[in-house]
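quick one before i forget lol
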Amino acid sequence: MIEQTAVDQETEPRDAYAHVGQEMKRLRLARGLTQAQAAQVISVSPQQYQKYEEAHSKCSLNYLIALAEHYSVDVNTFLPGKAQQPTPSPQSMASEADLLARLVSAFVQLEEPDEKLRLVQLVEAISKRESGRSA
């Protein structure tokens, strides 16, 4: 009997469709959408969309392309073996942009070069502490 390699096992059709469904769900949840809302994007019923996410039905390439365009991601995102980066929601991106604008505004208002340097050092220290926690 021939033993399957890990790569072969990863690319079995049922595993590939399960991965597609997982990515559909991950992207939908990252955007804060319900299955009904995501189903509207590709003009299918919420029940059919649920079947795609759970890999009970095969999602067509045309639907994946439409979802990729809607979520502003590459269609390859749905394929097995692709490294996934966390996908921030539009709300969190806007929130980060607002915070960054506030930080820059506060920085510009500082008159003393010494104060500007201390602010940068503070942000760097917090950043290093946070990156140490996630490592």
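fyi Residues 90-134 form one domain.
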